Structure formats: structure tokens, C-alpha cells
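Predict structure. Input: tRNA(Ile)-lysidine synthase substrate-binding domain-containing protein, 147 residues.
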Amino acid sequence: MAQSLPVWDDPHNADPAYTRSRLRHEGLPALEKALGKGVVEALARTAQLSRDDADALDAWAGRAEAGVRDADGRLECAALRDLPPAVRRRVLRRAAIEAGAPAGSLFARHIEEVDRLITGWRGQGAINLPGRVVARRQGGRLVIRQG
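Output follows.
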């Protein structure tokens, strides 16, 4: 009991019906057996490093977004193309969400298709996104809005 709080043992933690429980009781021990001790700690360190990287990329995308918008708020394809892919895709995701695409329904495959309007432009048509949001390239600009 820490700070006089009772400890509650969640029965789901031992139930193999739950993926997290199976991983904890079967997957992680198998990894440690195959790779040696310290796998859990190494995974935790990697997760923290990945979180730090993601936070830095999110901040970079936030700053970059202002520099790729024209006076009407459309995204300039040439400026987007110059951004590193991880930053560019974050800018595209933010623009899609701002236009009304539900974040929980907007997947990597959607953003990759929109990204091809920048990096693989061959005159393709509009990309339909969740929430009735449409992304299309018009005159060197990317327009993302409700369809």
C-alpha cells in the first residue's frame, strides 16, 4: 500500500483473452529467452525515444505549416515537396483534420494517397477522405476541404 491507497489487482492482467496479457505472459518471456535479459527495458527505451522523435516532428510540422500555405490558406505543393516526408505527412494530416476528417478514421493509407498528389503528381483526381473531406491538386496548390 503506497500512500495508504489500497492495491487493486485487475483480473484482466492475467486473462489470456486480452492481447496485452498474452504479450506480458507469453510474448515478452519468449523474447527474453531468445534475445537475453533486458528486452523489456530496451523496448521501453525505444518507445521513449520514438515518442521524443514524434514530438519533435510534430513541433516541426506545426512550424512548417505556416510556410507552406498561400494567402488563401491552400497548401503550396512545391513547398510541401521540399519538406522531409515525416514532416510533410504530418502537415497533410493536420490539414485534413482541420478540414473535418475525423482523426480516428484518418489512416496512414489516406495520408499516403494525399502525399502522392505532391510527390507523384501525374494528373490524378481527387482523394476522398473520411468525413466527406476531399483533397485535390489545383494549379500547384493542394486544396483539402469538405466535399
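The chain has a mean pLDDT of 92.
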